[in-house]
Amino acid sequence: MAWWIGVGLVLILTLVVLGRAARQYFLARGAGPASGEGMRSGLRGRDAWLVAQELAASGDFTGAAHALYVALLASLAKRDLLRLHPSKTIGDYLRELRRRPAAPTQTMLEFARTYELVAYGLRTCDADRYDRLRALAARVIEHRG
Fold first, then answer.
1. Which pLDDT value is given to residue 59?
2. Which of 31, 56, 116, 141 is the most exposed place for a label (fewest CB within 10 A)?
3. How is 8-61 classified by DSSP, letter by letter?
4. Whole-angstrom Cα Rg for the chain
5. Are 39 and 67 in contact (CB under 8 A)?
6. Mean pLDDT, the chain, integer
7. Residue 132 CB: number of other CB atoms within 10 A?
8. How far is C-alpha 140 from the geometric centre of its chain's CA atoms?
9. Which residues of 13-38 are buried (b: 16+ CB within 10 A; e: fewer)?
10. DSSP-assigned letter for residue 32
């Protein structure tokens, strides 16, 4: 019995270490879901909301969804509702928003659920899903709690 518990703990530890290594690898490459610096460096000096519109108009709904995420975070940070950091996940930002009574937490949660499917699940975004993300992002950005 103790042997199985030991094997289980070693497996769990191995999975945690591999997961962290993979995350660091993708963050370092600037790949993956709007990976902090990876996405922001491509937008440097540009309005992410406008970039999202341009990408959507050209048919790149996946890139547009990632640009929307950056625009949304920038808007919330500008209003001092959260602090940006490349290592933070969308879940980290949601937890941070929950501590702010005037924050548009529910709408941001809806955006996060849809965006996570694009960023981590399907890895692509179609026009309908982009339209939903854009509408939710607009509600968050326009929110004045």
1. 96
2. 31
3. HHHHHHHHHHHHHHHHHHHHHHT-STT-THHHHHHHTTS-HHHHHHHHHHTT-H
4. 17
5. yes
6. 81
7. 16
8. 14
9. eeeeeeeeeeeeeebeeeebbbbbeb
10. S
| Phi, then psi, of 93 in degrees rounded to 5 | -65, -40
Give me the DSSP letters along 90-107.
HHHHHHHHHT-TTS-HHH
At 19, give phi and psi (nearest 5°): -60, -45
Q: Measured between alpha carbons, how far is 141 from 66 in angstroms, rounded to an integer?
A: 16
User: Which pTM value belongs to this model?
Assistant: 0.69
67 and 55 Cβ atoms separated by less than 8 Å: yes
| Angle in degrees, 0-180, between the axes of helices 127-142 and 48-57, rounded to the nearest 10 | 160
Q: Which residues contact 107 (CB under 8 A, 6 or more apart)?
A: 136, 139, 140, 143
Q: Which residues lie closer than 8 Å to 132 by C-beta, 6 or more apart?
A: 114
- The model's pLDDT over 17-52, given as tens digits with 9 standing for 90+, comes to 555 555 554 444 444 444 444 444 455 567 899 999
